[in-house]
Amino acid sequence: MGDGTPIKMLHDRVLVEVDKEAGERRSSGGIVIPATAAMGARRLAWARVVAVGPHARAVQAGDRVLFEPDDKSEVEVHGELYVVMRERDVHAVAAERVGDQATGLYL
User: Fold this and answer.
1) DSSP the chain
2) What Gene3D superfamilies would the database entry show (predicted)?
3) What domain range includes position 85?
């Protein structure tokens, strides 16, 4: 957290900080597409895990996770915006420790 205050998440809850660059993106022609632009398909987002509850099994603090940002609970702590979700809402985990496991996908 910004001021060093520890947070203890409960159950299987995960607290994440959404990547700043996840907002705007560029088309192949160089056109800037704002985060508020409506897309045909739902877009997933990457975030950094800040804290996890004691029942989270596959996610650890410091991991990057892929999740669907719509309909998630947002919370502001000391001016920083975070998202709270259940571990089951995480689609993928990107971390060095998962490199030893055969996933078939390398991000």
Assistant:
1) -TT-------TTEEEEEE-GGGS-EE-TTS-EE-TTS--SS---EEEEEEEE-TT--S--TT-EEEE--TT-EEEEETTEEEEEEEGGGEEEEE-GGGGGS--S---
2) GroES chaperonin
3) 13-21+39-100
